Amino acid sequence: MAEEKVKKTKENESKSSKDTAKNYHVAKRPDGKWQVKFAGGEKAIKLFDTQAEAIAYAKKLAVNQDGSISIHKKDGKMRKQKY
Fold it and tell me: What pTM was computed for the model?
């Protein structure tokens, strides 16, 4: 029974880390720049002047990594998820 719990925990950890690593977020920063970063990540991967530029870059990353992107509005609320 303990082995089953360990196995399930490891499966959940690997599943959630895969999902997180493949999801990119496009969001506006307080300084006015648009950023692309990993879900749950602290540092931006790249900064842009416009949301459209950030979305285009995130799409390229998502396609190459078989992932998805989540787009935030200017106020931080979710605009579109799993784009």
Answer: 0.70
- For the chain, helix (H) and strand (E) counts, in that order, are 2, 5
> How far is residue 33 CA from its own chain's centroid?
17
Task: Say if residues 25 and 37 touch (Cβ distance below 8 Å).
Answer: yes
Residue 28's nearest CA partner among 37, 19, 20 is 37
Which pLDDT tens digit goes with each residue over 25-76? 999 999 999 999 998 889 999 999 999 999 999 999 999 998 999 999 999 8
- 3-class SS at 41? coil
Beta strands in 1-83 (DSSP E): 23-28, 34-38, 46-48, 68-72, 78-80
Gap between the Cα atoms of 69 and 38, Å rounded: 9
